[in-house]
Amino acid sequence: MGRKSNRKKSNSPKGNKQTDAASLARRILQFLDNNFGQEFNPKQIIKSLEIRDSITKGGVEPILHKLVENGSISKTPRNYFSSNQEPGFITGTVDNVNPRFAYVIPDDPKVSDGDILVKEADLKQALDGDRVRIMVYPTKGRTGRVEGKVLEILERDRDEFVGRVEISPRFAFVVPDFKKMHKDIFVHRGDLMGAEHNEKVIVKLTEWREGDKNPTGKVTRVLGKAGLHEVEIHSIMAEFGLPFEYPEQPDQEANAISEEISKKEIQSRRDYRDITTFTIDPVDAKDFDDAISFKKMENGHFEVGIHIADVTHYVKPKTELEKEAFNRATSVYLVDRTIPMLPERLSNGLCSLRPNEDKLTFACVFEIDDQAKIHNHWIGRTIIHSDRRFAYEDAQQNIDDQSGDFFEELTTLNELAKKVRKKRFDHGAVNFETVEVKFKLDEKGTPLGLMVKERKDIHKMIEEFMLLANKYVAEFIFKKRSGADTFVYRTHDSPDPEKLETFSNFAKRFGHQIEIGETKISAGLNKLMDEIQGKPEQNVLEQLAIRSMAKAKYTTEPKGHFGLAFAHYTHFTSPIRRYPDMMVHRLLEHYLDGGKSPDPESWEQKCVHSSEREKRAADAERASIKYKQVEYMSLAEEKDYEGIVSGVTEWGVFVEITETKCEGMIRVQDMTDDYYDFDEKNMRLIGSRSKKMITLGDKVMVRVVNTDIDRRTIDLEFADNDEKKSRSRAFN
């Protein structure tokens, strides 16, 4: 009775058998295709497919022979069967998303329909970031995605990890901090270098035999007790491969450079030492790599000079100093320190445009009228003598009060910058104003307070003139031979329409409409950025808008910059802290001196390296901020916080706390009021019983239940103060 009641009636039993046979044939074929290169007998196939009923078991062998007849599979004399399909073989980079599977991102995106899913058992001990060669299965897996297996690890991305030591009587493990390293590292007690339980260490992988669940490693550096500020910052530095000190030889080279500027050098440059010049930087900055000169001209126009530290005058090719600068490629700014690209002797001394000192510079000088129309410009080497070092706050105060040093010059420059800025936006530039947090730390590094950095007119003024100089330098080189000369450009592709559509739908949840037609993207985004200023959703929407955009990069290809709406753009203005700017200075000098275009290949390789180093620096900076946010929330008052749902996944809900800009997660497994299903298309969780929804953009009330400094995570729960407040939505 039970069997009959559960079976659908049919007027065509034969048709059902045919359908069942076809379904079984597809399962068998997919199994053999996904195990390309292996042979199976019927019993092994039955076991692998978990076929339990006798009728279906009896149908396996006839179907196998039928598949052999039509050429879909092959059969050996021993009655073993294998796939006839031809797999694909590609190379790519592992993105190890979780302990169960990873994606391989193809080197050439054209060879595959998206990233290739690789199950943990098929990773062949490949780790996140490794370059691998994989076999792509001929048919898609159960997930509907292209799947594959790693055949060979071509290049390890890293063999050192930072983690916390856990010691037992007979052995020890290092639990890695890196979230995408899902294996603990076994360490023989004799290889601990004296590390004690719960200390942070750097461990180097020494062996990972096939079949071993965990790799084996050896401690190379003991950082100290987990949780201490200096130890955690050093952990972040080690995690991202940042150097702890400057090597001796390049440091010695820097110290040996003479401070003296010869008369011959001065005569080869335009002399701006008698023209009003000043620097404007953060109050705690020491590396001043840009200065502005200002002069009223007899025709009523203004001469505005953007003077940039001439780093390449001191850092010569093929020196150890040059090699180290290239390797670092950028200065890194963590919450409590700067890891400089150049040694202090150069970054804070010789090259820094300090006041009351003669300094060598590369400049872009503009003749500009009171409507910010540029009539002429000149690019070349200069020598300057800065009259004043301003902190941003001081310069802004002089403009606001209309008094103090150079307040008239500052006011005029500010008015010109506003007009230049307006023209840029009228031309299609996108106004991305991201929220930045800054911590007030005590002498031990403990966060005492958290503040959001405020961008005032003076910040925008400096930014606008730097953008102008970068743009004109790029256009100057491009126009020489219509882009045929090798040069380093900063490019930014147009956004992917699908990502933009997703972002637009998300913004609608806050009541914001964005026009995303091809010619209206910039205007629509700028309108949104204006609307959200000062609102709780500002940071979430700004971050998501940036994520929906393409990533800017360095390249020798003379493409445009979507975000700035410039046909050509480069980085010229920060050579003390960015290697690409040094590359630009070298090429610019080469062309100004009449040199021919060099081969682009080596310069493109340097561009790729610089883009990779830029990403590493950004990731490290975010990690240091996240660490302080976690520590800050661990010390914060126990109370309910207002937040916004900033992300929804199958395993949890991310919430950004509005007051502190800190993001935490509420795990699905901890949401015990209901069983929640993940609706990926609409980025929401739906309660299977209550039908309550948790959606991107929801305003919620949460409380902190746990903080983990090692993993830099904040665990939250929905505040449930009374029965009227559902655990999925505190208020709308």
UniProtKB/TrEMBL annotation:
<dbReference type="GO" id="GO:0005829">
    <property type="term" value="C:cytosol"/>
</dbReference>
<dbReference type="InterPro" id="IPR050180">
    <property type="entry name" value="RNR_Ribonuclease"/>
</dbReference>
<dbReference type="InterPro" id="IPR001900">
    <property type="entry name" value="RNase_II/R"/>
</dbReference>
<dbReference type="InterPro" id="IPR004476">
    <property type="entry name" value="RNase_II/RNase_R"/>
</dbReference>
<protein>
    <recommendedName>
        <fullName>Ribonuclease R</fullName>
        <ecNumber>3.1.13.1</ecNumber>
    </recommendedName>
</protein>
<dbReference type="Pfam" id="PF17876">
    <property type="entry name" value="CSD2"/>
</dbReference>
<dbReference type="Pfam" id="PF08206">
    <property type="entry name" value="OB_RNB"/>
</dbReference>
<dbReference type="InterPro" id="IPR022966">
    <property type="entry name" value="RNase_II/R_CS"/>
</dbReference>
<keyword id="KW-0963">Cytoplasm</keyword>
<keyword id="KW-0694">RNA-binding</keyword>
<feature type="compositionally biased region" description="Basic residues">
    <location>
        <begin position="1"/>
        <end position="11"/>
    </location>
</feature>
<comment type="function">
    <text>3'-5' exoribonuclease that releases 5'-nucleoside monophosphates and is involved in maturation of structured RNAs.</text>
</comment>
<dbReference type="GO" id="GO:0006402">
    <property type="term" value="P:mRNA catabolic process"/>
</dbReference>
<keyword id="KW-0269">Exonuclease</keyword>
<dbReference type="InterPro" id="IPR040476">
    <property type="entry name" value="CSD2"/>
</dbReference>
<dbReference type="GO" id="GO:0008859">
    <property type="term" value="F:exoribonuclease II activity"/>
</dbReference>
<feature type="domain" description="S1 motif">
    <location>
        <begin position="638"/>
        <end position="719"/>
    </location>
</feature>
<comment type="similarity">
    <text>Belongs to the RNR ribonuclease family. RNase R subfamily.</text>
</comment>
<dbReference type="InterPro" id="IPR011129">
    <property type="entry name" value="CSD"/>
</dbReference>
<dbReference type="Pfam" id="PF00773">
    <property type="entry name" value="RNB"/>
</dbReference>
<dbReference type="InterPro" id="IPR011805">
    <property type="entry name" value="RNase_R"/>
</dbReference>
<dbReference type="InterPro" id="IPR012340">
    <property type="entry name" value="NA-bd_OB-fold"/>
</dbReference>
<dbReference type="InterPro" id="IPR013223">
    <property type="entry name" value="RNase_B_OB_dom"/>
</dbReference>
<dbReference type="InterPro" id="IPR003029">
    <property type="entry name" value="S1_domain"/>
</dbReference>
<dbReference type="Pfam" id="PF00575">
    <property type="entry name" value="S1"/>
</dbReference>
<keyword id="KW-0540">Nuclease</keyword>
<dbReference type="GO" id="GO:0003723">
    <property type="term" value="F:RNA binding"/>
</dbReference>
<feature type="region of interest" description="Disordered">
    <location>
        <begin position="1"/>
        <end position="21"/>
    </location>
</feature>
<keyword id="KW-0378">Hydrolase</keyword>
